[in-house]
Amino acid sequence: MLFFRGLPVITLALSKGRIYDQTAPLLDAAGVTARDDPATSRKLILATTRPDVRLIIVRAADVPTYVQYGAADLGVAGKDTLDEHGGQGLYQPIDLQIARCRLVVAVPEGFDYQRAVRQGARLRVATKYARTAREHFAAKGVHVDLIKLYGSMELAPLTGLADAIVDLVDTGNTLRANRLKAVEEIAPVSARLIVNQAALRVKRAAIQPLLDAFARAVS
Ligand code: PRT
Ligand code: MG
User: Fold this and answer.
1) pLDDT of 49-93, one tens digit each?
2) Model confidence over 155-185: pLDDT tens digits?
3) Do residue 28 and residue 92 come from a single domain?
4) Residue 158 contacts by C-beta under 8 Å, 6 or more apart in sequence?
5) Among protein residues, the one whose CA lies closest to atom 3 of ligand 1
6) Ligand nearest to the CA of 16
7) Which contiguous run of DSSP H or E holds residue 194?
8) Same domain, 111 and 74
9) Looking at ligand 1, which atom is closest to the CA of residue 167?
10) pLDDT of amino acid 219
């Protein structure tokens, strides 16, 4: 365990972009402000105005992993990435209600998805959310071949790689720009504060006030 003048150091994992941008005001309200801006700095460990609190910058999908193994005590992760990770070892005390969007099934505008499902067609589905997609289609009794992608899922149906995608939608502009339509909502998504379960037991005195400050900043 890391200490600063007798206080345990608290490490919070965040991803650059919308998660960082929308978490920063909540952190400010909790008295924690980064000393560098991750949008311009190349540092991956950021000191804050609280000498016992530091931020680490990781890929969005890696946040649950850092917290699961205790490399970070806390993190902020979308429900999409948490469901895909599985949530082992994580306590999820607060829905921060930021970075909101929806996880959906989308297909080309001209494709009759409901009819394909009724007819028992086997669908090729491209997604980075393989686990969530597999569970969703299994629960519906739809047969799918899943194709794992790491980004730009919208391209898959346009190039013949897949019949459908499972992806996040916010305004719907990206789907429209690529002549796709959402045909099914799998889940609403927002970012959650996550905590390593062991860290919460061992560092409760240090972590609980931060959780309380987050909770106050959200409500
Ligand atoms: O981008 P990178 O490859 O680095 O990683 P990432 O995509 O995992 O991270 P990031 O920062 O893009 O997303 C982090 C989290 O933000 C996600 O895990 C979600 O929980 C949340 N979030 C909220 C979103 C969106 N809204 C969103 N609109 N993540 C992605 N998008 C993308 C979506 O994938 C699609 O390509 O934006 C596009 C759709 O937006 P609209 O407004 O055109 O519908
Ligand atoms: Mg992205």
Assistant:
1) 999 999 999 999 999 999 999 999 999 999 999 999 999 999 999
2) 999 999 999 999 999 999 999 999 999 999 9
3) yes
4) 108, 178, 179
5) 151
6) 1
7) strand 191-196
8) no
9) 34
10) 85
| Closest ligand to Cα 174 | 1
Query: Which uninterrupted H or E stretch holds 183?
Result: strand 180-189
Q: Which residues pair with 123 in a beta bridge?
A: 144
Give yes or no for a contact between 184 and 200, defined as CB atoms under 8 angstroms apart.
Answer: no
14, 57, 62, 101: residue to mutate for ligand 1 pocket, most atoms within 8 A of CB: 101
For the cut 90, the answer to whether the pLDDT of residue 1 exceeds it is: no
Q: Is the CB of 34 under 6 A from ligand 1?
A: no
Q: Residue 169: CB within 6 Å of ligand 1? A: yes
The reply to whether 184 and 208 lie within a common domain is no
Q: Residue 71's domain spans which residues?
A: 3-99+190-218
Q: Give this prediction's pTM.
A: 0.96
The widest CA-to-CA distance across the chain, in whole angstroms, is 67
Percent over 90 (pLDDT), the chain:
97
Assess whether 195 and 91 both reside in one domain. Answer: yes
Q: Domains in the chain: how many in total? A: 2
